[in-house]
């Protein structure tokens, strides 16, 4: 069975974000195909997509390599998210469906419950699902796709400190959902802007001012991520 290129792309992107493929390291089609258990064709397609997204660059005499964003490029990503997250919330207030609201309310209930218990790992995952669902509720595939790419790249470049007050953070999530449910675009935009600004202050660059990583073989750590395993996220 042919493994689709988007699945290969997801696997490579996830490993770049996790640091399995190091910044500046080469990404050869042959080694990637062997690593993920696929042919070179979907690997080639995936590398083209990842280059368009900014995770991969093509260098003369080296071929495809993991990108090495500058501090300024990383900072620009946070600024872009601060502009687009509130826009997505405002659009969601106009276009959300009852299905979106049901999921958002369920995530807020779980988040508030976990926040009271102090379970930070669950909160990180729930927060990601919340913002992904909120973006989908905007009814704009282009905006949803752009925000998803921003989240991936920010997770790659930044470490995020847990909120000082997770209960307050999830109260803000609840306020966003209330505004979206009422169709109040401006309030949804305002609360989301405040929430995003607060979250941005907790981001710390993983590699501030770091020079290019020296080449060591293929630059790949030892963990494996086969594409044709059921655990792969699509």
Automatic annotation (TrEMBL):
UniProt cross-references to CDD domains, sorted A to Z: WHTH_GntR
Coiled coil residues, start to end: none
Region annotation Disordered: where it falls in the sequence: 195-234
Pfam families found in the cross-reference section: FCD, GntR
Highest taxon in the source lineage: Bacteria
Family matches, as SMART domains: FCD, HTH_GNTR
Designated name of the protein: GntR family transcriptional regulator
PANTHER family membership: GLUCONATE OPERON TRANSCRIPTIONAL REPRESSOR, TRANSCRIPTIONAL REGULATOR, GNTR FAMILY
Domain HTH gntR-type: 2-69
Keywords: DNA-binding, Transcription, Transcription regulation
